[in-house]
Structures are given as C-alpha cells and as structure tokens.
Amino acid sequence: MKKGVSEQGWRRLASLSNYSKVSQEYQGWSNYETWAVALYMDSDRGIYKYVMERANELKSDPDGWMVLADNLKELYEEQMPELEGAFGQLLSGAFSQVNWDEIAKNFMENL
After folding, report:
1. Within its chain, how far is the Cα of 53 from the centroid?
2. What is the number of structural domains in the chain?
3. Cα distance between residue 58 and residue 56, in whole Å
4. Per residue of the chain (111 residues), what is the pLDDT tens digit?
5. Does 12 map to a domain?
6. Do the domain assignments include residue 59?
7. Is 14 part of a structural domain of the chain?
C-alpha cells in the first residue's frame, strides 16, 4: 500500500476506476451519456426532424458533421436547466461526456 492512502481509499479509487471502464462503451456508442442523448433525439419527432433537415443542408460540406455537432450541443445547452449544488454538478458532468461529434456523424451517415 502506498504511503498516505488508506486501504479504504484504495478501494474507492479501484471502484472509480472500474466505474470509468464500465461507463465507456454503451450500446454501440462511446458512452452511456452519448447513447442516452442520441436515443432521445431519435425518439423526439421534433428534434429528429430538425436534426435530419440540418444534416441534409450540411451534407455537401466536408466539415458539415462538425457544424451539426456544434448545433446539437448548442440546442441542448439552451434547454439544460440551471441547477445548483450536487445535482448541478452531476448534470454538468454528464453533459460534458456527450460525444456530439459521434451523434452528428451518425446522423450524417444515415441520410
């Protein structure tokens, strides 16, 4: 055991390390957060229609997927509620894990 870290501390670090590994790939997406946002985009007719129209507008631009990724992130940032404390930190942390590029590329590939 390393000096300065208790056995309980090492167990916690190990569990966080395992969580990190588990929280990576999920249902074919890079992580759970990305999968969840993509699932809701596919399920919400209004958002799905907007995303597909926007993807169609950008399909001739080689960097269109990047523009779409930025558009999607901004769309969700505008809708994100402002929360304080632990809940705000959790929401912010989960939101920062969403891979907007992956979602945008997926939509562009499915035109």
Report:
1. 21
2. 1
3. 5
4. 445 556 665 565 565 555 555 558 999 999 999 999 999 999 999 999 999 999 999 999 999 999 999 999 999 999 999 999 999 999 999 999 999 999 999 999 999
5. no
6. yes
7. no
